[in-house]
Design a protein that fits this description.
The complex is a heterodimer of chains A (362) and B (125).
Chain A: H1 8-13, E1 17-21, E2 24-29, H2 33-42, E3 45-48, E4 53-58, H3 62-69, E5 81-88, E6 94-104, E7 108-113, H4 118-127, E8 134-137, E9 142-148, H5 152-156, E10 172-177, E11 180-186, E12 195-201, H6 206-218, E13 224-225, H7 228-238, H8 271-280, E14 284-291, E15 302-304, E16 310-320, E17 325-333, E18 342-347, E19 350-357
Parallel strand pairs in A: 3-13
Antiparallel strand pairs in A: 1-2, 3-9, 4-7, 4-8, 5-6, 6-7, 9-12, 10-11, 11-12, 14-17, 14-19, 15-16, 15-18, 16-17, 18-19
Chain B: E1 8-9, E2 14-19, E3 22-27, H1 29-35, E4 38-42, E5 49-50, E6 55-61, E7 65-69, E8 74-79, H2 89-92, E9 101-105, H3 108-112, H4 117-124
Antiparallel strand pairs in B: 1-2, 2-3, 3-9, 4-6, 5-8, 6-7, 8-9
Classes of the chains: A alpha+beta (362), B alpha+beta (125).
Chain lengths: 362, 125
């Protein structure tokens, strides 16, 4: 049975096209992906991403547990800072990609995980929680709105005394927002357009209060609700990985270009395997490409070399609304991962030319 | 949703308008709305004699791709040239400037046997 977020009714009232995503009834688009995409790139838009999962880890051993299970170095975090990281499995694949928030250094951390992986991640962490770190799955009662775009913080600033205009990337503040207490405002996002993500508890009418305050402040300035369709085109233009498409249990962080969040300054699950990949090189790499011939690449299409040998597969693809070009990401054998080189994409019954380009695309 | 009464429809969400032996074919308001922003219409079957139900092309939207099925037996004579540079016409004006193909139909009576507006509305309702 599909779950609702506290905003599902609102999306339906607003006429969004709805669909099931990771078990939740989510808005895919309101006015059209291109229009919503442009709204976020040029102005500001609001995404309901309350389907995402949040875990609280508490106690003296919380940091040790996070360090042991994730690839990034969480010991670098101080109060009010967040980092992008990966949970790795025993084979060096990715259990999930996530954000680690340092609420109180060495004491309280929040992990934000993909909706489709909440149970898997929870079970994985519980299974490795040998020091009995206190864990709370607060996913069901936590709302998450992403307000993204160059004008997002300007629109929101009047709603709070927290200084969100000057919030640095990957830092956060906690305080009163639109009259609601204990709202966490984080300068993060999945669009590359700037803005914040705000977390708050689903109680005492907070979702309604916050949603209405945001639109009362923003609608006159062109703020609009945005669906998951545009969220996908926005993230793909930036080359951000989508779990289940570009990364999964079988892809290593190094293959996926996530070496920058893989720190060998400490031990973590499958570190020897991943360190060996770093020394010896990986056999395949996630690359970006744009179509030369007319056609749209899609997840799962085969990638061939000029002789027609299979060299990999497309992990994500779309028509980029900003670039007006068809773009994609995919895994290819490392020898073919050379910027500028030509590849062929098997688009249904045809082989279409594409060329490797650097990520981000936009 | 708008389903003009002067058109005929298929359960595959295409509409047909007949003049003599020539039919104009497009996708319905419902279909364009389901697909979302259309970015590319591909038809490589011009001049081929095809049967009703045959795939005659594909329509690519930002998020998805869908086959196009010929509504009646016949031969495609033209792809709407305006779609090459303005595929969004299919979204903005599905029954007008966003038409997709013109075809010669083998038997005009085949068009009459397709769904009328009320019948199609029942399909998507």
């Amino acid at each position: 049975m599909m779950k609702d977020t506290p905003f599902t009714k609102k999306h339906i009232e607003l006429g969004a096209k709805m669909a099931e995503f990771a078990g939740y009834n989510m808005p895919i688009s309101y006015t059209g992906i291109n229009d919503e995409h442009a709204t976020v790139r040029k102005n500001a838009g609001v995404f309901d991403v309350s389907h995402m999962g949040e875990f609280i880890l508490k106690g003296d051993q919380a940091l040790e547990l996070i360090q042991r299970l994730t690839t990034n170095d969480a010991s670098r975090l101080t109060d009010g800072k967040a980092q992008y990281s990966c949970l790795t499995n025993a084979e060096g694949g990715i259990v999930d990609d996530l954000l680690v928030y340092c609420i109180a250094e060495n004491k309280v951390y929040m992990l934000v995980v993909n909706a489709g992986n909440i149970q898997k991640d929870w079970d994985w962490i519980v299974q490795h929680n040998i020091h009995q770190v206190e864990m709370h799955n607060i996913s069901d009662k936590t709302c998450l709105l992403a307000i993204q775009g160059p004008n997002a913080t300007k629109i929101l600033q009047p709603l709070t005394e927290m200084d969100i205009l000057n919030l640095k990337y990957y830092t956060f503040a906690k305080g009163v927002f639109a009259g609601v207490e204990n709202v966490l405002v984080s300068a993060t996002g999945y669009t590359g357009a700037g803005g914040v993500e705000i977390y708050f508890e689903d109680k005492d009418g907070a979702p309604e209060k916050i949603w209405n305050a945001i639109f009362a402040a923003g609608a006159p300035q062109g703020l609009k609700p945005i669906g998951l369709g545009a969220r996908d085109t926005l993230r793909l233009e930036m080359g951000y990985c989508l779990y289940g498409n570009d990364i999964d249990d079988t892809t290593s962080p190094l293959e996926a270009g996530l070496g920058w969040i893989t720190k060998f300054t400490k031990d973590f699950t499958a570190r020897p395997i991943i360190e060996k990949q770093k020394t010896e090189g990986v056999s395949r790499k996630l690359i970006g490409f744009e179509m030369v011939d007319k056609g749209i690449p899609r997840h799962g299409y085969a990638i061939m070399d000029e002789k027609g040998n299979s060299i990999g597969h497309v992990s994500s693809g779309t028509q980029s609304p900003s670039l007006q070009k068809a773009i994609g990401m995919g895994y290819v054998d490392t020898q073919h991962a050379v910027a500028g080189s030509e590849i062929l994409i098997a688009v249904r019954d045809k082989l279409l030319k594409a060329k490797l380009v650097k990520i981000p695309f936009a | 949703m708008n389903f003009p009464a002067n058109l005929r429809y298929t359960k595959d969400h295409e509409w047909v308008s007949l003049e003599g032996n020539t039919a104009t074919v497009g996708i319905t308001d419902f279909a364009q709305s389901e697909l979302g922003d259309i970015v590319y219409v591909e038809v490589e079957t011009i001049g081929k004699s095809l049967q009703s139900g045959d795939v005659f092309g594909t329509v690519e939207a930002v998020k998805t791709v869908s086959d196009l099925f010929l509504p009646v037996n016949g031969t495609i004579i033209e792809l709407n040239p305006a779609l090459a540079n303005a595929p969004e016409l299919v979204n903005n004006d599905p029954y007008g400037a966003g038409w997709m193909i013109r075809m010669t139909v083998n038997d005009p009576a085949d068009v009459e046997s397709l769904l009328d507006a009320a019948g199609y509305e029942a399909v998507v309702g």
